[in-house]
C-alpha cells in the first residue's frame, strides 16, 4: 500500500456555493504533498474535511486503507492557518490538554512534550502563560502540539507564517526530519519557494476543482515549454540570428554572466537540443546552455490565468 | 479519561482560576452583606420626631391625640387649639411643624366626618393619615354610641372576631399567612434559576467567543466533535457556577450571623417576630404558631427540592445552549446583543408572570400555561410547586422542557458547528437559519 490518504470525488456545498467539486487526490505514503491554490480555491474546505471538522456532501476519504472515522483524529496532526492558543493558560498545561484530546495518556504526553521542548530549546516555557509569549514563540508551541502524538499524517497550513527566517528554518528542518521518520505531510502554502524546496508531490486546486496533481518532476515535465537559455559569443550576430530564426522561435533572455555575450531564449519545439547546438557552434562560441524548467510559481500562475473563466 | 470529562475539567479550572471569578466569588457576599447591614442599620435608626399641631375647636379630640405622645412615637402632637387657625396655617414652616390638624366647630359631631383638614407643606404619609382618621373615627363612634345611650362595654363584648381556618380536601390543615412563605420559597428558587442562567449562560457565551477570537477553535475541533466541546463547556461552566454559588451561600450566611451579632442589627427581624408574639400572648397564638410550623413541614418539600434540581438542570442547559450558539455566531460581545434579547425576554417574562399571576392565583390559566411552556416553565413552575400542582402538569411541563432541551441542543450544536469557523462578519438571522442546513 503506497497511498496513505485517498480522497475520492469529494463534493462540498455551502448553500448555493460549491466549495469542492468532485475533488480527488491521492497522497503517497512518506511524501511531502503540496496543496496549492489561490485564496478561496477550496483548500481549507478540503483540509477541514480530512480533519473531520466538516463532513463532505458526497464522496469519501480513505486513510491508510480505512474509511475516515472518528478514531482517525489520533493519526492526524493539524496545524491550521487560523491558529491560536488559550491566552491565559500555561504552556505545559495547555499542551498536555491538547495532547490528551488526541488520545495520549498524560504520562505519554508529558514524555513527548519534554522531548520536543528539549529539541526546540524551549524547556523554560512550561509555566509561562501564552499571553506572555511572542507570536513566533506561540507558533512553536502550536507546532509541538501538532506533532506531539506522532501522527501518520501531518497537515500544515501555512506553517511558516509568523516565523523569522531562523525559526522558519528550524521548523523546515523538523518537517524534513518528520518525513525521514516516515510521516506523510500535506503542506498548504502560498510560498512557492518552500514548495520547490520541500514538496515531492503537488496538487493545484482552483475554483473548487483540482487542475493538476502528480510528482513535482512530472508536473514540471508536463509544463515545460522545450526552451533553452543560451549565451553565445560571436562576431557575426546577424548571421547567427538568421540561422537560428530559420528554425526556432527566439526571444531575448536575461541571466547573469561574466561575458558580454548574446543572451537568447530559444524554443525548439519538437526538435532535439543537438540541432540547436549544431547551429550555434557553427557561428560562435557557446557560453551558456540551460533548459528552462518551469518553476512551481510559473506553473501556478500559468494554470490559474489559463483557467480564469 | 474520556474527552468530555477532559473538556469539563479544563473549562472548570479555566473559570475557577480566573482572577475575576475569584474576586467576584469573595467580594459579592461582602457587598451583599454590606448592603444588608446598611439597610438594617438605616431602618433601625429612629426617624426624626415630627411635630403636629392640633387645632381642635370642639375640644373633644385633643385629649385622644395627647395620649398618643409617647417617647418612642415618631409623631408628637401639640395642643394649639387656643391659637388662631389662620395664624397657624401661615406659620407652619416657620415654627417647624409637620402640619396642623384643624378640627372645626360644628353643631353635630357627625358633620365632622368630612370637615377635618390636615394642612401641610409636604404630603403626609399614608399611615399617619390612616392613624389620625382612626383616632377621630373611634372618638366619634364613641360619642354617637353614648348619645344613643348604648352601653359601649356590652357592644364591645358582642363584637365577634372570626378566623376562618383553611383546609384542603386532602385533609391538611392550613394557615392563611402561609401563602407569603410559599411565595417566598418559590420566588427565591425561581429567581435563583434566572440569575444563574443569566450569569453563567453569559460565561458560556464569553468562553465560546474567546475560543473563536483566540483562533484555538480549529485546533480543538480537529480532535473533538463540536458537540462534545459545547456540552463539556456548558457542564464545566455550570460546575464552576455551582461552586461559586455554594461559596456565596456559606460566606453569606456566616457573614450575616457574624455581622448581625457584631452590629447588634436585627437583620432577620421578621423571623424573630413569632417568638416575641408567643412570649406574651395566649394559648390561641401558640396554637397558630404550631400550626404554622406544622404547615411548613407539610409543604411539598421533596417536590420543591426535586423540582428545583430538575428545572434548574433543564432550564440552565436549555438556555446555555442558546448562549453557546450565540457565542459561536458572533465575533465579539457587542455583536451578541441583537441575539440575546429574544433569550432574555422569556426569562424576564417568567419572573413577571411568577410575581404577578402566580401570587395572585397559582392555578390561574396564565400561571398554568406559563408553567408548562418550556422557556418559562423552570421559573414559573417552581413558583407554583409550593402551592401544590397536579402531577400531570408537572409531568407535561418536565417532558416538554427536556424535549425542547434536546431540540435546542441539536439546533444550537448546528449553529455552533458552523459558527465557530466563521470569522469576520456578524451574521443575520437569515444566515443563522441557513446554517442549520449546512
UniProtKB/TrEMBL annotation, chain A:
<dbReference type="InterPro" id="IPR017871">
    <property type="entry name" value="ABC_transporter-like_CS"/>
</dbReference>
<dbReference type="InterPro" id="IPR027417">
    <property type="entry name" value="P-loop_NTPase"/>
</dbReference>
<feature type="domain" description="ABC transporter">
    <location>
        <begin position="5"/>
        <end position="232"/>
    </location>
</feature>
<keyword id="KW-0547">Nucleotide-binding</keyword>
<comment type="similarity">
    <text>Belongs to the ABC transporter superfamily.</text>
</comment>
<dbReference type="InterPro" id="IPR003439">
    <property type="entry name" value="ABC_transporter-like_ATP-bd"/>
</dbReference>
<dbReference type="GO" id="GO:0005524">
    <property type="term" value="F:ATP binding"/>
</dbReference>
<keyword id="KW-0067">ATP-binding</keyword>
<keyword id="KW-0536">Nodulation</keyword>
<dbReference type="InterPro" id="IPR025302">
    <property type="entry name" value="DrrA1/2-like_C"/>
</dbReference>
<dbReference type="Pfam" id="PF00005">
    <property type="entry name" value="ABC_tran"/>
</dbReference>
<dbReference type="InterPro" id="IPR050763">
    <property type="entry name" value="ABC_transporter_ATP-binding"/>
</dbReference>
<dbReference type="InterPro" id="IPR003593">
    <property type="entry name" value="AAA+_ATPase"/>
</dbReference>
<dbReference type="Pfam" id="PF13732">
    <property type="entry name" value="DrrA1-3_C"/>
</dbReference>
<keyword id="KW-0813">Transport</keyword>
<protein>
    <submittedName>
        <fullName>ABC transporter ATP-binding protein</fullName>
    </submittedName>
</protein>
Automatic annotation (TrEMBL), chain B:
<dbReference type="Pfam" id="PF12698">
    <property type="entry name" value="ABC2_membrane_3"/>
</dbReference>
<keyword id="KW-1133">Transmembrane helix</keyword>
<feature type="domain" description="ABC-2 type transporter transmembrane">
    <location>
        <begin position="19"/>
        <end position="413"/>
    </location>
</feature>
<protein>
    <submittedName>
        <fullName>ABC transporter permease</fullName>
    </submittedName>
</protein>
<dbReference type="InterPro" id="IPR051449">
    <property type="entry name" value="ABC-2_transporter_component"/>
</dbReference>
<feature type="transmembrane region" description="Helical">
    <location>
        <begin position="21"/>
        <end position="42"/>
    </location>
</feature>
<feature type="transmembrane region" description="Helical">
    <location>
        <begin position="296"/>
        <end position="319"/>
    </location>
</feature>
<feature type="transmembrane region" description="Helical">
    <location>
        <begin position="188"/>
        <end position="209"/>
    </location>
</feature>
<keyword id="KW-0812">Transmembrane</keyword>
<keyword id="KW-1003">Cell membrane</keyword>
<keyword id="KW-0472">Membrane</keyword>
<feature type="transmembrane region" description="Helical">
    <location>
        <begin position="391"/>
        <end position="413"/>
    </location>
</feature>
<feature type="transmembrane region" description="Helical">
    <location>
        <begin position="257"/>
        <end position="275"/>
    </location>
</feature>
<feature type="transmembrane region" description="Helical">
    <location>
        <begin position="366"/>
        <end position="385"/>
    </location>
</feature>
<feature type="transmembrane region" description="Helical">
    <location>
        <begin position="339"/>
        <end position="359"/>
    </location>
</feature>
<dbReference type="InterPro" id="IPR013525">
    <property type="entry name" value="ABC2_TM"/>
</dbReference>
